[in-house]
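Checked the freezer inventory, then went back to the computational side. Two predictions to log before the end of the day. The first one is the construct we discussed on Monday; recording sequence and tokens without edits.
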Amino acid sequence: MRRLQLFELEDLPWFPAPVRDAGTDFLRFMLTVGDNYAPVAPLLARALRDSGAPRVVDLCAGGGGPWRRMLPALAAEGLTCDVLLTDRFPNPASVDGLLAELGHTGRLSYHRQPVDALAVPAELAGFRTLFSALHHFAPPAATALLRDAVLQGAPIGVFESTQRSATSIVAVLFAPLLMLLVTPLIQPFRWSRLLLTYLVPLVPLMVLWDGLVSCLRSYTVAELEALVAGIPEAESYVWQVGEIAGRGPIPVTYLIGVPKGGIQ
């Protein structure tokens, strides 16, 4: 299946923030319940140790990403780390709840100003991670994102739980139904989320469209390897690219790059 660089509604600057935030809250909720990224915790812990990075800088974090589960999973690997959440469209209301909930399991903080993943400010040093996010970037932009990390000597880990496959697409088709069932359980509680889910169902429609597009523009292992090959400075890094069995029928695709000799 050929990769299609379609658009996701949440990427559009003019898209209403209440709808976008409700969608990213749902994604965070499902990542927590499904624990999709649990299998990559050992890979990430090993890469963090190898890199010597002082903290994790999570790009495109949306409503908080998988950190409610990932922080305890890293702790089970014997690693406690600082994590700084960032996003192009910050969602502080959702992340504040996560910060309060996870204060005891790790040192989590939130950068409240917009951060462009293609040009991360030098002061935001650390091991860069992207969960369910690289597919948002067309190949030239994805290469630029990886190259920006390399030029700044920042280790990076990219993890995706969608694929261009019939199984992944069928799973997404059930997402709006799941949203109708679980929306009252999503925290923090918002009346706007209820209204935009049940009365004017903009959020389920957004989740369906963006979910299908996410599948259709997900990168394969071979395509991730090609992105790395397009970085002139890539030889200064040790790269791992592959798939690992997920919690469900869809494997997690990953790309990890660590400077040779760790952070200098």
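The second is the one RB wanted added to the comparison set:
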Amino acid sequence: MKVQPPDLRIQKLLDRVLGTPAYQWDDITDPRKRRGRRWTLKHLLNAAFAGLLASCPTLRDVEAMTEEMGPTGRQYVPRRVPDTTLWQVLGKLDPQELRAKHRAQVRAAWRSKSLQPVGLPCGVVAIDGKGLGALEHDAEGTAQKAHRSHDGSPYWLTRALRAVLTSAQGKPCLDQVPVDGKTNEMATFGDFFEDLMRAYGAGNLFEVVTVDAGMVSRANAERVHAANKAYVMALKGTQPELFAEAKRLLDHPGRKPDCQSEVEVFQGHRVQRRLYRTVDMAGYNARRQCK
């Protein structure tokens, strides 16, 4: 059977980026003992990076891809990289070293004008909670306990906060941290946002931060405002008093939206999105305390 060559677009991208300083791996500590190393850490990380670019779902697919790369790819990966070797090494790397390397790569992309806003006047970062998988154990106390709806049996969910530059065409991830099993997204947001500002806040990579309802609090809003960034926060029934006040001000027949979308069907429901701009909510907490 004739083996098809890898996607030439992936090859061209490897040629363009792997020679830049941000994609050198010299500052990543090799967790292996010196004796018996068959592969350099550089070649293993290059293989993993190429697998990400090619959307390989498993390390076995990365192994197959490196086998198919042929002579044109040998400057990055000399020969087929076994999936077991990748599995043994990747899980032992220092996550903080990888996090610092990732931030350096994002900043390099920004300096090269690759992350300019598309269709928006400014940069926008979305901070959102993500479920990374359900486990049958608590992962040494790092996963959150939950119960299945059909039988009530317990499972543990590994969660993370992720920041994505949604204004850029490629929507790259800027940072990600795990949410400890003993806390939640709202409490994790503060330290995560401070880390984000230390890594990217010096420039104008983004000006607006959007968050979902799980992180909405006055303290988090004030933290974003103090960093001289604007925020867009989702308001739902989890904030009952504030949600009721917003509905009282906005949801009545005499109030017309500034703009609205066409009606669409989503999961069996007719949905129409409306945009209102108002300062009527300003000072709500002070008014409520005076009553």
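For RB: Residues 216 and 239 are 8 Å apart (CA to CA). The chain has a mean pLDDT of 85. Let me know if you want it refolded.
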